[in-house]
Structure formats: C-alpha cells, structure tokens
Amino acid sequence: MSNLSASLIRIVLPVIILIVVYTYLGPVAGIGALVVIALAYLYLNKSLIYQNRAGKKYASGNYEGALADLKAAVNAAPKDPKVRGTYAFFLVKMGHTDEAAEEIEKAIEYAAAEDERKPLMITRALVLWKQGQLDEAIKLLDELLPNYENTNVYATLGFFYIEKGDYSKALEFNLKARDFNSSSNVILDNLGMTYLLLGDYDNALETYESLMKNKPNFPEAFYNYARVLDKKGDLEKALYMVRYALTLPFWNTSTVKKEEVEAYLKELEAKEQAMNAEKQEKQDGNEPIDNM
User: Fold this and answer.
1) pLDDT digit string (tens) for 180-220?
2) Among 50, 94, 126, 54, which residue's Cα sits nearest to residue 251?
3) Structural domains of the chain in order of their starting residue, each with its CATH number
4) What's the chain look like in SS3?
5) 233's torsion region: left (phi>0), alpha (psi -120 to 50) or beta?
6) Are 63 and 82 in contact (CB under 8 A)?
7) Which one has a higher pLDDT value, 115 or 51?
8) What per-residue confidence (pLDDT) applies to 39?
9) Residues 52-68: pLDDT tens digits?
10) Fewer CB atoms near the end CB (10 Å): N or C, the chain?
C-alpha cells in the first residue's frame, strides 16, 4: 500500500464511521464516536506529533527541546527506521556521537527495504567520521554511491576526501559532484575549499562568488570565502565574511570549529592593524616640515 493510499484511508475511514454512527445512532453517539476517533488519532500519531513539535522547536533555536521531542517520537514508534534515523542524525549533529552510533545501527536493523537503509548509511558515515574512522566512512559512501547517486552522498564524501588530505582526488570528485548538482551549497563549498587548499585562488574565488549568490546558511561557506578573499588581497571583505560566519550556528558535524574561526578573525584583525599602522607611518613621513 502506498503512503498516499494509507493517508487517505486514515482520513476517509474515520469520517465514514462518524457519518454512519451519527446517522443511525443519533447525535449523542456521534459525539461519542468523534471523541473516540480523536483519542485514537492522537494515540496512533503520537510519533508524528512529536516530530512536528521537534521541527518547530528546531526552527525557533530550541535544539535541546527538539532533541527531546525526537527521542519521544522514537519511543512512540520504536521500529520506524526513518524516525530513529532522524534522531540518530540529530544526535551526532549535537555531539552525542556514541548514542548516535547505537541509534543508527538500530535504525538500519529495523529498515526492511533497501531504499530505507540507503539514506541511513550517510548518518552512519558521519558517525564513523566523528569516531575517528575516516577511512571506513569513505569506504562506506564510496560503495553506496553507485547504487544511491544522491546529493547528500556527494556532499559528504566530497568533504571526506578533503579531510583525508587527498586534494587531487578531492578535486576530481568535487568537480564530478558539481556536475551532478551545481546548485548544492555544500558541494560548491567543498569545491571552493579544494581549490583554496590547492592554491588555485582564482577558481576558488569564482566558486565562492557563485556560492554566495545562493545565500548559504552555514558558517563554513563564509569562513572559507574569507580565506580566499584574504589570499586575493581583499582584507576588508574577508573581515566582513569571517565576522558573519561567527553569527551562524556551529554543530558537531560542522567542518570547522567556532574556535578556529575566532582565531582566524583575530589574525585578520591583527593584520588590519599592522596595515593601518604602516599607512599612518607613511603619512607621517610625508608630512612637510613646518619651518619656524
């Protein structure tokens, strides 16, 4: 049965029952049936209700509250691999790597169909990476990609190659990823960072200028763009970008730590101060001598 058919049955069947009860047993029985149906709906859809609450809390910045609601959603539907997989992903994102490892393995175990298991493998790869098993994470996604050509796989594996330090492989792969989805902000950031690390600042700048048109919402994009701008001599704009990066949320799965960005900002500010001091010295040296 398709999801659409199941949804229609959940909606249409209670309505039919309500109409029949109201018609043949009267309004009092109809109201009673309505109460029973409402209670049954709430019970059967507890997991969905918790998921919706989690989404609203996440959007408002209440991440701990969202995590608690996702846990409640899992408890309400413990054998639903999608719900447990979402919970596992958010756990690793929040820094609870060991718990995420347990949850993602359970989700994979409960996934009966191959199509259910494939997206869960991306979260498993993220867990492996955070556990220090980068080679295993790369192997997992490298084997997954031929049968699951997906933007999230390209984006995650593209960064893993950078993290590995194999920049030639990273460039080859991230160019392929861009061909697959040239509008993905993460893929463009991976490609721009690869060019940056290879010292190809012109292509890095072009890539980040394209990325900025998409209005990314993660700090790595602005931090890496700042690094490129600094290399190209645009210190003022680099400072703006790195400061903006610090206004965005950092996660356990972010590819740069907030402390690194803060340290880089101090480095740029010191550079700016030195340049301003040098300019002032030159101006002072060029001032005409006032003959008394």
Assistant:
1) 999 999 999 999 999 999 999 999 999 999 999 999 999 99
2) 94
3) 47-148 (1.25.40.10)
4) CCHHHHHHHHHHHHHHHHHHHHHHHCHHHHHHHHHHHHHHHHHHCHHHHHHHHHHHHHHCCCHHHHHHHHHHHHHHCCCCHHHHHHHHHHHHHHCCHHHHHHHHHHHHHHCCCHHHHHHHHHHHHHHHHHCCCHHHHHHHHHHHHHHCCCHHHHHHHHHHHHHHCCHHHHHHHHHHHHHHCCCCHHHHHHHHHHHHHCCCHHHHHHHHHHHHHCCCCCHHHHHHHHHHHHHCCCHHHHHHHHHHHCCCCCCCCCCCCHHHHHHHHHHHHHHHHHHHHHHHHHHHHCCCCCCC
5) left
6) no
7) 115
8) 43
9) 888 899 889 999 999 89
10) C
